[in-house]
Amino acid sequence: MPSTKEVAELIKKDPTAVDAYMPLVLEAIRDDQNHANWCDDLKLAISRQVFEEVKSQSNKHEQHMLELCEMCLEKRSATKWYYLAVDMFEEKRIINWKQHVALAEKLIKTFEVPVALVRSKDEVSGLSKGCPPSDTGIGVALMRCIHAMMAGLDRDKILKKVSKCMVEVLVKLSKMPNELQIIAGHAFCSSSRQPLSWDGTENMLPELYTNLYEWMTSGNVDLKSKRNDKTQFIDSIISSSLKGARSPSKYAKEIYKIHQYVLTQELDGDPYSGYGLLAITINSGFVEKNYGNQRLIRDFVPGVVKMLKCDNKQLMMNASSCITCFQQQGDLLAPYADDVMEAFLDEKSDLLGHCLKPLYGASPEKILSRFDQLAEAMEDMNPTNKTYIYMMWDDVAKDNAKLLVPHLDLMMDDVTNARFCHQVVIILGTMSVKFPGKFVDKIDKLVKVAKQTPYTIHAVSKIVASVGQINEKQAERCMKILVDKLKTIEDMWLSVIMMDMKRIGLKHVEVLKKYRADIEPFMKSQAMRVPDMVQSLIDFMDGRSLEALADDVEDVKEDVQNLDDRVTETEENVDRLDKTVTEQGQEIDNVKNEVTEQGQRLGDLEEVVDDTIVRVDEIDRKTITNAPKWSRDIANLLNPEHEHDWRFLAIRLGFTGEDVRNWALSPDPTMAILAEWYTIHKSSEATFAILTALQDMGRDDAATIVEEALQAADKVVPKAVPDISEKPPRVFISYQWDHQPEVKVIKEHLEKAGFNCWLDIGQMGGGDSLFAKINEGMRAAKVVLCMCTEKYSKSENCNKEVNLANLLNKPIIPVLIEKIDWPPSGSMSMLFAQLLYIQFFTDKEYVRGEKFWEDAKFAELLGQISYHVAPDEEMITDEYRNWVPQIDDLPKVVKTANEKKSTDDNTKSEKVTDQAQEIIPQVFISYQWDKQTEIKTLYSRLTSLGFSCWLDIMQMGGGDPLYSKIDKGIRNAKVVVSIVTPKYALSANCRREVSLTDALRKPIIPLLMQRMTWPPEGPMSMPFAQLLYIDCTGESTQKEFRDAKFDELVQKLKEHATVEDTVVQSAPPSDTEKPEIEEAKQVEEKSQSPPAAENIITPESEEKEDPAKQNQPPKEEAKEDQKLEPISTEDPAKLSGSTVPQQNQPPNEDADEDQKLEPISTEDPAKFAGSTVPQQTQPPKEDAEEDKKLQPMSTEDPAKFSGSTVPQQTQPPKEDVEEVQKLEPVSTEDPAKFAGSTVPEVRPQSVMGPKHAEVIQPERSVSAPKERARPDSPKKKKKSSVCAII
């Protein structure tokens, strides 16, 4: 066999003869025993001549190179062959690894075989003596080889594929590794350019961490230095895995054991030990990463707190960073409050100041125990930590103001510091209510502060008013200060000053009366709420109060007695008048004679009019029209201009804005609408649609005409007696054919339980029309079961069946027979989002065609079905003979039309009609009070530009009902600006405001005032998910609101609100408001004492509550989200601000009523042939580029609704935008939106959400849970009053 030198000479003679010399090369490498040199003749010849020849032949010799690479890695003790492998991995044209994934995994596994470290002579006794294994020749070559291999695999796009194999190798290397295995493991995890992918390897991490823990605790591992190979090996594995792996709960237990062990060792070093390095790595990679999951990190907190006590600054800063991450989780930090306070007082880290306020809320006693120590430390504390203490003192002042009194001078010193001014003044304002005497000599200084910093005037005014209540002398002094401020302060603060003046007047009203002349001129002020506040002060000074009203009542009683005496006297006068009447009777006889003559003349005129009417009727009948005879009477009612006239009817019937414009020029627009409607629809369906639309519009006068016409038709042509020879199935099963075996076995068991089911394979025969049979089965059924799968949600025919069931108001019960996301994506998502499903699928394997569900789930399904259908006793088998539905099984998926609430006319009371004219703001500002200062600035800027804005502190005062004011403000506003912060997303009141806004379809403009995830987590995520926010997190933006972000807000506001228009409301109360007044009066009469403020429930607050909570016990929040239902238009009272309790009704078993399909906007009569109505689907989310081009959809083209995909529309010309917005149809669920306007307004794209097409889904009425009806209960007919409009 030739030597390596001979083979090298052979290569040099003819480099092109690769096939000839490559077998010799492999043999020479296999037999080579010279491990000392890092290079020889053969290695040079291969890397120069052979590789150049291979690259020139375009992978012709790739197989030889693969064998060569494998041979080099098998010679693991030879440095030169590692370097030859490095050359092969680094060169792209030698091997294309994308085609050799299996071989790459084989090469990776060669590194798990243990190989002893062989040092060179120089490393044993030369200059490199004692160097660590990673610095030896073989160690450096091994690490370079692995890094080159990972770079080559990443270059050829297979690194992610083989990463799982690398992790398997790391698991084996971590179990008592030798020196070279440590170097190999470190090399796999330390490549920064080609990081190892840990996706899908989470199940291997527990074993990996367990191996490391056992090795570390074996006694053979010393990690005192953070730079030795063993420390680097462990740290690189933990750091890389924690950074790339998911599902931390799978390996939290094992990583916690390592964390606890390293904390028991010496952490300090230069600058810290290897144990300290591992503690920092786990804190950063696991604790900080999962700080929101208390269950995972709770056990780590004691160790992190322990690190706060280290003298090493880097370890202490790392611990401070971790603690700051879960600062809002006060209950988690409460047990360690003393340690955190100690570290804060030692000023080890400014980050710990963030925890003071949450810690006080969770454990106030521990904070108060160190209160004096905190106050003493403030004198020498840096401004940052001082700010944190003042933030905490704000809460202390509300609960324990007495503790702050000794430190009043300290706060007065800081009140002139611009950095602390606002916080300090607020704290002082809270203290002044309980300790006004402490501020008598400090008012002058505080007034100067208010002059320098105007935004503190509200707190300074509060302090002045508190002092003014002490005695009359102080009242004179403080009242003068406030009156002087009235003359110089900005308009936005006038109402605040006046409220504090009234506080002084409560104790010293005579002092307030002296300044009446200074107050009355402000009655003409244009500032919001100032005139009302002035009137309130004047009424107070004049003594117009409840006591004065009682005196007035007594006076009225005296007047009534006097009136009774006068009535007696009047009776005597009446007797005298009788004589006079007799005399005038003769004169009346003369007048009668004249009237008789005029009557003869009118009789002649009536004959002429009757002839004219007959001729007009003849002309009308000759006119070609498809509308019935009673259409003329409807036209006479709807043609006059009204908030619910013919234009609203056209929108309800689904006609487009262009159609409305054309009919506006017609002399009889209502007749034109009805004629076209009857032309494109069947008469029966058209009549029912018109009747339903009129009922939903509240036009009972017109609906009565249609009902009488239908009753007359029934008398002329009676309805055919239904064929009852065979009882149709009452349970309709909708499914996708790929799961037919599972559905058939479900049907079999349902019929064993007594429920006859409709299934296409059982009810269809040869020659039957598919859609006709489905329509017939659906209409006859009482409940629809949807067998939900991934393919079911994407099936066009299944979508049609679900839409038909929804339009027929059939109860829908989703049954999951395979695991899918809920609600399923596609056009079903809007409908299914409000329903709860029953899960039939399990993780267990089953035989198709046999039972695969749990008995409890099937019992739940039987309970839901029996709510709507009584089982057939003849069909029930012994298996289900003894099954009895539970009475308290509330239906979770019932979906029927809401019934109108009947109101007793005798219980209604009229409102006072003399309502003062009130300016209704067009812009409603919704915010959380922590941002009140910035919101005041925003309010000032918007009002200065001419916008009329609603802000709670500007519109509300003492005695005002909170929820009714907010409800009225949102309902009357044209647009709502939501100031989004983390606390805003958690606030219950803010969630109610957003929910009401979303339910009323008001445009929402979100302003992001703090950095947070979008959409916010929690109940607000659904309304905000489709909206784009305006980023106002910048300090400059929030300070003045004069930058581009504010300009963007102004542009969006101008799309909905105008700067010159104001809405004046002076109309008397409507009928829908009277029940609300009556209800309020009844509550007032029944209550003998004023209830606590927190227990008062107004109709407006009830409306903001989750409807599911009114009739059902509390449930988990996640379930409540699934049960949220859209507002129905069946009850007008719901839309006028009053709350109508939802009544539970028994299921409607009248098949004839169920067969009435609600009209939709379809201009093609053929769509009703099969009674299947396709539902529109939203465009795919991933197609963001196409979404940006989509505009809100119009219903002018009926072809757009024939499929399940929404076509894309282009933006109309700018000059037509306003007109198009006024005429395009939108969801008409809320009739209140159309009050006072001709055509409902379309929410603009910029407010509705991301820049993609808005699919106008049909609004659906969703039923509430009803009382369970007994199977033998009498049938009750119920009118369906839901009109689905597209």
UniProtKB/TrEMBL annotation:
InterPro entries on file: ARM-type_fold, DEATH-like_dom_sf, Death_dom, T_SNARE_dom, TIR_dom, Toll_tir_struct_dom_sf
Keywords, ordered alphabetically: Coiled coil
Bias-annotated ranges (Basic and acidic residues): 1071-1087, 1114-1124, 1180-1190, 1213-1222, 1265-1274
Span of domain TIR: 727-860, 919-1049
Chain intervals with Polar residues compositional bias: 1136-1147, 1202-1212
Coiled coil: 546-608
Domain Death: 645-710
Domain T-SNARE coiled-coil homology as annotated: residue spans: 564-626
Residue segments, region Disordered: 1060-1286
Entries under SUPFAM superfamilies matching the protein: ARM repeat, DEATH domain, Toll/Interleukin receptor TIR domain
GO biological process, one term: signal transduction
PANTHER family, per the entry: NON-SPECIFIC SERINE_THREONINE PROTEIN KINASE, SAM DOMAIN-CONTAINING PROTEIN-RELATED
Protein name in the entry: Death domain-containing protein
Protein's organism: Patiria miniata
UniProt lineage: Eukaryota, Metazoa, Echinodermata, Eleutherozoa, Asterozoa
